[in-house]
Amino acid sequence: MTQNNHAEVAIIGGGIVGCAIAYYVSKSGIDCVLIEKNDIASGTSSRCDGNVTIVDKDPGFDSLMSWKSQELTIELSNELDLPFEYRALGSLLVCENDTEMQAAKEWVNIQTAAGLKFNLLDREDLRQESPYFADDIPGGLECETDSLINPYLFCYSLIEKAKQYGLKLQTHAEVTAITKKENFTIETSKGTFTAKKVVNAAGVWAPFIGKMLDLDIPIIPRKGHIMVGARQKPVMMRNVMEFGYLMNKFGRERIVDERTEKHGVALVLEPTESQNFLLGSSRQFVGYDGRIDINVVETMARRAIRFYPKLNDFTMIRTYTGFRPWTSDHLPIVSAVDEIPGFFIAAGHEGDGISLATVTGKLIDQLIREESDTIIPIDPLRFERFSKIPSL
C-alpha cells in the first residue's frame, strides 16, 4: 500500500456534490482523495440545467438551504480560478391561470416575510421580460437572487482549486467493495485505497455504495429529459419555470391534460451563455432506463409552445436524459451514519444538486471536522430520519 493510496477522507463520486465536498474539505487542510468511476461531471451533473435557485423551493428550511448555497456560490465566483459562466440574473416562475396567480401571491408573501427577495409580476411585467409570452398568461413572480452556472465547468473549477489545496484525484476508478475495520478499505478498478473517513456522494448510485456496507439508502432515480434548442432571436434572457413545476416536484395536484400529467412535464427554459437554450422538464420513475422517449419530448415541446406560441420555429439541437436522486421527503441526505462511524452520505438532492452543492460541501466539511455550529441545521437532513419506527 503506497502513501498516495491512503487519505484522511475518501470522497466517492465526482459529480457537482462530490466536487464541492472535495473543495471545502481540501481547503480546510484535510488530506483527501476523490474517487470517480468515470470522468468528473460525467453523470447527472452533465445532464441537467444550471439553476441555482430559491424560486422553486418550499418556504422554510428548503429555502434556507438554497439561500446559503447562493451566498457560497457568489464567494466561489470570486475565489475559483476557472470561470464557470456564473450569471446572477434572477429567475421567473410564471402562472398559467388565476388560481395559480393567487397561490403565487401567497408564495411571495411567505418568502418575503422570511427575508427573501421575491416580487409579484403582472401580465405587463412578463411582456417586458419577453414579447413571446402567450397573451393569456396572467403573471408570475421573480426571485432576484437566483443565478445560472455551467455545472460541467463548475465541477472542473472546483477540482482545479481543490488540487491546489492538495486533493488527490482518481478517475476511471470504479468502487467494487468497501470494508471497515480500523480504517475503511476501498477496492476499485484502479487499485485499493484506505481512508479514516468516507463520504458517499454517488448520487443515484449512492444506494449501491451503501449496500457494500450493508446499509439501505432510500434513494431512487427519477428520470428527466432536456432538449437543447436554438432560435435566431432569443426567447428569454433569464431562467423561467411554470408554477406547475413545483406541483410536479412535490407531487401536488395540477390542472393539466392527461399526457402532461402522465409524463410529469412542466415548462423550464434556461438561456445559455452560448445563446442557445435548455428546455425541460419531465419526471418519471422508470428505474435506470436512460433511453429518450419521443412521447415525452413531444409533450415538453407542446408545453413550451403553450407559454411561448411563437417558439414553434425553434431548432432542436439534441435531447438527453439524466437521473435525479429522489428521496420520499424531497430533502437530501447530508449526514454522518451513526451505525458506521466515519461514514457520511451526501446524496438524494433530486433536481436540486446544482442549487445545493455548495452548502452540502460546506456542511460535510463541518461534519467531518465535528463543528457544532454548522452553516444550516443538520436534523432535517439526517440519514436516521428514514429509520422505521419499531412496532410495539
UniProtKB/TrEMBL annotation:
Residue ranges of coiled coil: none
Keyword presence, Oxidoreductase: yes
GO molecular function annotation: oxidoreductase activity
Keyword Oxidoreductase annotated: yes
EC number: 1.-.-.-
Gene3D superfamilies: D-Amino Acid Oxidase, subunit A, domain 2, FAD/NAD(P)-binding domain
Keyword list, A-Z: Oxidoreductase
Domain (FAD dependent oxidoreductase) ranges: 9-366
Alphabetized InterPro entries for the sequence: FAD-dep_OxRdtase, FAD/NAD-bd_sf
Protein name: NAD(P)/FAD-dependent oxidoreductase
Source organism per UniProt: Sporosarcina soli
